Structure formats: C-alpha cells, structure tokens
Amino acid sequence: MPGYSVIVGRFEREPSTAGRLAAFVIRWLVTAVAVWVAAALVPGIHLDGFGSTLAVALILGLLNAYLKPLLIISAFPGIILSLGLLLILINTALLALAAWIAGKFDGIAFSIDGFWSAFFGAILISLVSFLLTRFINPGRLARRFD
Fold first, then answer.
1. What total of structural domains would you count in the chain?
2. Out of 3, 26, 106, 122, which could bridge 91 as a Cys pair, Cβ 3.0 to 4.6 Å?
C-alpha cells in the first residue's frame, strides 16, 4: 500500500522507488545543465566533456545534499543577519570544493581559476537550477513513473 504525505494542504502519494530514481536522475541532469551553462558563460570556469559535466554535477549534488544543510545550520545566525547573502558564499565554497574534489580524479576535467569565478559560477548555477526546476518540476514528472 503506497504511503501518503501532506504537501501544501493536500494529500499526495509518495513516489515509488522508480519515481525516486527518476527524480534523482532529473535533478542530476538539471544540475549538469546548470554547471555546463556556468562553464560556458563565466570566464575562469573550465569544463571539458560530457562525462566531466555529469561527474561534476554528481559531486555538486552530493555536496548540496549532505554538506550544505550542515553549513546552513551552523551559519544560520549569519544568514539571518546578512539577509541571506551568506548563502551565496556557502554556494561559492561548495562549488570550489566540488572543483577541488574533481581535481583529485584523473578523468574529470573541471577547474575554477579563483574566487570571483566560483562566486559568479555559483550564482549562475543556482539561478539556472532554480529556473529549470520550476519549469520541469522533477517531483511531478517523477510521479509519472509510478
């Protein structure tokens, strides 16, 4: 029997395993497109190849899933005092960390030249991911796999 959850005042069925996997793949591809756009538009971000794009998107997705919540909780007072601007610096740090991690693997060609490239890249990745997620809606699309 499928589980149900309350989302914005209405009951929705929780996605199956196939639906969750589909949502993960869709979000991963959205992040890959966002990373590719940032590499194409921001000077100082270097990305070579489709495989590297997917690998960097996976690294960034894992950092955002596991490390970002801890950083947000620990920096919460600063986020409030800065009216959320500290979140941009957290995203910048995570993008720089993703580049550092990618540099440890021979097959991943991704590098960032400096702080400002990471800063503007993080802003652009956030913006593109937000817009694509709103347009595609991975959760609703994944429920079609149930």
1. 1
2. 122
- The model's pTM: 0.85
Q: What ranges make up the beta strands (E) of the chain?
A: 4-7, 10-13, 45-47, 110-112
**Inter-residue contact 108 to 52 (CB < 8 Å):** yes
Indicate whether 119 belongs to any domain. yes
CA-nearest of 28, 20, 9, 4 to 143 is 20
Which is it for strands 10-13 and 110-112: parallel, antiparallel or unpaired? unpaired
Beta-carbon contacts of 85 under 8 Å, excluding residues fewer than 6 positions away, are none
Residue 12 covered by a domain? no
Q: Which residues pair with 12 in a beta bridge?
A: 5
Q: Which domain holds residue 64?
A: 29-136
Which residues are bridge partners to 112 per DSSP?
A: 45
| CA quadruple 55, 58, 61, 67: dihedral sign | negative
